[in-house]
Design goal:
The complex is a heterodimer.
Chain A (H helix, E strand, L loop, with lengths): L1 H7 L14 E3 L13 H13 L7 E7 L2 E6 L2 E5 L6 H12 L14 E3 L5 E6 L2 E2 L10 H12 L15 H15 L5 H11 L13 H11 L6 H16 L24 E3 L8 E3 L5 E3 L6 E3 L2 H12 L5 H13 L11 H26 L5 H19 L2
Antiparallel strand pairs in A: 1-2, 2-3, 3-4, 4-6, 5-6, 7-9, 8-11, 9-10
Helix pairs in contact in A: 4-10, 5-8, 5-11, 6-11, 6-12, 9-10, 9-11, 11-12
Chain B lengths: L9 E6 L2 E6 L5 E3 L3 H15 L44
Classes of the chains: A alpha+beta, B alpha+beta.
Chain lengths: 394, 93
């Protein structure tokens, strides 16, 4: 058990500092773990053992967070999806990952779906070696770019449907809702983050396009004001209504509509929706694959390039890494960055992801009673510059 | 002025404050007294100010948005030096 821990601990998703390394879960020793493993993880371990028909198999917890729990048993990994995940949408996303058109791009699932006693959806996947978190210089940026280019060129008409919307903007909206819910004391940072958010076009904020005109007036009315609380309430209210009706923001996007403010949906592609280095695993010795289909769907492919773009813009990602990623994407036929200067296409989603990251950083740091770390600080500073730039540009 | 070698006319160019004459025929270059030293001095200053990029790396800094970090477009110790603590962010949503 011990020798495996070192590499398992680095797997997939649990990556925030202070996240405990992979924990071996032994039902006989459950009491000894002193609640170190969540009930979800324990139930997931039981389900995985059952699926493998081995009641005593060793199970390792790879990630254990409210929005996703992952356990490993041998070469199989089981994931409990976030509460409230729509089973029908997840089934379509799973079908996409299993589709031959996505072979070599997305990791295919190994089996069907199941559910935990609490109703959470469970999917099974082959285990793969993740990117080593202690060696970011060796990160497969070129591979990531190439995989995204191939993902963005998958012919949508041949995939199972109805394909849900890519959830990037909805997740950004949720991060802002979380920041507002944290009700932090007024500060330059939170004010800037909320202003930068208010300056984004509706589609990038996960706002229903049907009320886009209204939304834009609302935004113009509010830009520059420190308090956007009622706007947040509206977004959150919408969020709740959507959850009750089992849908996500942006699902009702009309792909024919476009008004030149931002991405009009005229070039919707299959998108990953949440790209970062934890979303790449080595399937076999050398082949990288994209994992995590929770946010997969139709949307602006620029969103998938925008997180590395945001890191580069914030001064965090080295220019060489950024160029390797973008260069490989373009060399593999990726078109989401246009030609020449990529920023006309990347600016809006990169701003949204900058603000999302800053909002989560502020909320998490406040909840943990700690200061921002250097990287988080850089994202907040970028948000402050976005807010300034926005006001200067009127 | 005519080229001492091929006798074609020479044209004067200014390179970082150094006057040089180049032949329009054979492309040969004529330097006045001290100009070679001036060029050498300029070259060494340039090397000190901006170390050459590693092989294969592009010459220009890639484009960044207007709201990008102020260090964009500047040189100096950037290569291989990520901000500390950036690692975890690479792996999170």
């Amino acid at each position: 058990m011990e020798p495996a821990r070192g590499c398992i601990a680095r797997h997939q998703e649990a990556r925030s500092p202070g996240t405990p390394p992979g924990k071996s879960y032994d039902p006989g020793a459950a009491d000894d773990m002193g609640g170190a493993v969540s009930q979800t993880a324990a139930q997931l371990a039981t389900a995985l053992r059952r699926a493998r028909r081995d009641a005593t198999a060793e199970v390792t917890v790879l990630a254990d967070r409210p929005d996703g729990t992952v356990v490993r048993c041998g070469h199989i990994v089981a994931k409990a999806h976030p509460p409230g995940t729509d089973p029908a949408e997840l089934a379509v996303r799973l079908g996409v990952a299993a589709h031959p058109r996505c072979a070599g791009i997305l990791l295919p699932p190994v089996d069907g779906m199941a559910a935990l006693p609490d109703g959470r959806q469970v999917t099974l996947w082959p285990y793969g070696e993740p990117v080593a978190p202690d060696a970011p210089d060796a990160a497969p940026w070129a591979e990531a770019g190439k995989l995204l280019a191939r993902l963005h060129s998958v012919p949508i008409a041949e995939l199972p449907g109805p394909l849900p919307a890519m959830r990037g903007p909805a997740k950004a909206a949720r991060a802002i809702a979380r920041l507002r819910a944290a009700a932090l004391p007024d500060s330059v940072a939170t004010r800037a983050v909320l202003r930068a958010w208010a300056g984004l076009p509706g589609w990038a904020r996960g706002v229903d396009r049907m009320d886009r005109g209204v939304d834009r007036m609302d935004r113009l009315d509010r830009v520059g004001r420190p308090d956007h609380r009622d706007r947040a309430d509206r977004v959150e209210g919408q969020d709740r209504a959507d959850r009750l009706e089992g849908r996500e923001h942006g699902d009702r996007v009309d792909p024919r509509e476009g008004d030149g403010v931002g991405f009009g949906g005229e070039d919707n592609r299959l998108c990953h929706g949440d790209l970062h280095l934890g979303q790449l695993i080595r399937h076999r010795a050398t082949d990288w694959r994209l994992i995590d289909i929770d946010d997969l769907g139709l949307g602006d492919p620029a969103w998938d390039l925008a997180r590395p773009a945001a890191w580069y813009a914030a001064g965090l990602l080295a220019a060489e890494d950024w160029e390797r990623f973008l260069g490989a994407y373009r060399a593999a036929g990726g078109s989401a960055a246009g030609e020449g200067d990529p920023w006309p296409r990347l600016d809006v989603p990169a701003r949204a992801l900058t603000v999302q990251t800053a909002a989560l950083a502020l909320a998490k740091a406040a909840a943990a009673g700690r200061a921002l770390d250097e990287a988080e600080e850089a994202m907040v500073e970028a948000s402050v510059r976005i807010a300034h730039f926005m006001e200067a540009a009127g | 002025m005519q080229c001492p070698k091929c006798h074609a006319p020479m044209h004067t160019y200014n390179r970082n404050g150094v006057q040089i004459e180049q032949c329009s025929g054979c492309r040969g270059i004529f330097l006045d007294y001290g100009e070679l030293e001036a060029l050498t001095r300029l070259e060494s200053q340039w090397t000190q100010a901006a170390p050459p990029a590693p092989p294969g790396a592009p010459q220009a800094y890639p484009a960044a948005p207007a709201w990008g970090a102020p260090q964009h477009g500047h040189h100096g110790g950037h290569h291989g030096h990520h901000k500390r603590g950036f690692g975890h962010m690479l792996f999170s949503s």
